[in-house]
Design goal:
The chain has helices at residues 30-38, 49-64, 84-96, 111-123, 137-143, 181-198, 200-215, 218-238, 253-263, 271-288, 294-306, 324-331, 361-372, and strands spanning 6-11, 18-23, 42-48, 69-75, 104-109, 129-134, 148-153, 156-163, 168-172, 344-347, 353-356. By secondary structure, it is α/β, with parallel strands linked by helices. The strands form three sheets. A seven-stranded mixed sheet has the order 1-2-9-6-5-3-4, with helices on both faces. The chain has a two-stranded antiparallel ribbon with strand order 7-8. Helix 4 (111-123) links the parallel strand 5 (104-109) and strand 6. The radius of gyration is 20 Å and the shape is globular.
Length: 378
């Protein structure tokens, strides 16, 4: 018997509430979902080159079949596009198209397209509605939900942006069939994150079923995405603007962003790979501080390694020229820094993360040095 691989999750944000639809083949029904949520609108699809080849025409056909007029803009792929220059291009394109305030932006792509198209929607005509149609596992389980939009600056990632919630998120799990294995693995790091921060039973499940998720088993994939989105929806609904608990979603990200900055955003280290090392560092730091039991650190490390991630900085290509001081300098640009003090997402064990500013920087530097493979003093 065919199983019904479809679920809906509500992000309960009062007048900004919206649904996340998850299922196989949902792009074919995108027009109907958009119409029932927004009525008749002009749709402005923003996508990137790799995604356009696979999904632009199915998306256009789905929207046009419901009578929506569709324009599209294809930008190049890659993190370098999360820039002011690309933002200007998208905004000018929308204005050239004579978009009005009922114009609907459709962000079709991974986290980069979602972040920059969402930011363009946030600022054009002081705010347009937009729909997230995420095409990577990373975007499906994290960046398409919760309304964070941004561009990067030379000072660091995501330092200019806004909270602008989408009106609808449509997650078609079938798009993952055409995604390179490395990209799927990057998204899987964020899936593991939800188990580590909040749900030890989900982590148990991932230890047993992670290989199926990575291999594309439809039921396992759906369960992983729905569970991840449910945890995220619940956290975002309680703390939309990251004044408290939402910061938990950054487990491993302060370290991870520093690693990405050190690597230079050149594709040698992808976000999910940096987050995997970052989560190992966060749990390692927690262990050093007497917070996280050694067996939980070991389980997390083992699962990340079994899923194909590097878990030490020394194993990242190019890391030979990095040092702890340089990485800490990058960490100081983190948005969680308050009054000059770095704040960390730490762990009391699998499923139990918390945020604190009460961390001795010398211990952080020592954890980084160990992970960099710097020999211990004799
Ligand atoms: N990616 C973390 C957040 O959305 O808060």
């Amino acid at each position: 018997m065919r199983q019904d691989f479809r679920r809906t999750i509500r992000v309960a944000l009062d007048e900004r509430a919206y649904d996340i639809h998850v299922g196989e083949g949902l792009i074919a029904g995108l027009g109907a979902l958009v119409r029932s949520r927004f009525g008749q609108r002009r749709a402005f699809v923003v996508t990137d080159e790799p995604v356009a080849g696979h999904w632009l025409e199915p998306v256009r056909a789905a929207l046009e079949s419901e009578g929506l007029a569709v324009s599209h803009l294809v930008i190049p792929g890659g993190e370098a596009n999360k820039s002011f220059e690309r933002l200007r291009e998208i905004v000018n394109w929308l204005l050239d198209q004579r978009v009005d305030r009922r114009g609907l932006v459709i962000a079709l792509g991974g986290g980069i397209v979602g972040d920059i198209a969402g930011f363009a929607a946030a600022v054009t005509l002081r705010g347009l509605d937009y729909v997230q149609v995420p095409t990577t596992l990373l975007a499906q389980v994290d960046s398409s939900v919760g309304g964070k939009t941004a561009v990067n600056t030379p000072h660091g990632k995501n330092l200019v942006g806004s909270f602008h919630q989408p009106g609808l998120v449509v997650i078609d799990t079938r798009v993952l069939d055409t995604l390179p294995a490395r990209e799927v693995r990057c998204g899987y790091a964020e899936v593991v994150k939800y188990g580590l921060i909040r749900d030890h039973r989900f982590f148990d499940w991932l230890e047993a079923n992670g290989p199926k998720v990575l291999a594309g088993d439809a039921a396992a994939r759906l369960h992983a995405i729905v569970t991840s989105c449910s945890v995220k929806a619940e956290i975002v609904a309680g703390d939309e603007r990251e004044e408290g608990r939402r910061a938990l979603l950054n487990l491993g990200h302060t370290f991870g962003h520093a690693l990405e900055a050190a690597a230079g955003f050149d594709g040698t280290l992808l976000h999910g790979e940096a987050v995997a090392v970052g989560m190992e560092l966060a749990l390692g730091l927690s262990h050093r501080l007497g917070l996280c039991p050694g067996q939980d650190l070991e389980r997390a490390r083992r699962h990340l390694a079994a899923s194909g991630f590097a878990t030490r900085i020394a194993d990242i290509p190019g890391a030979g020229s990095w040092d702890a001081a340089g990485l800490i300098a990058h960490m100081r640009h983190d948005k969680k820094v308050r009054d000059g003090r770095m704040r960390f997402v730490l762990s009391r064990g699998i499923g139990d993360a918390f945020v604190t500013a009460d961390v001795d920087e010398a211990v952080v530097a020592d954890c980084l040095a160990r992970s960099l493979g710097v020999p211990e003093p004799a």
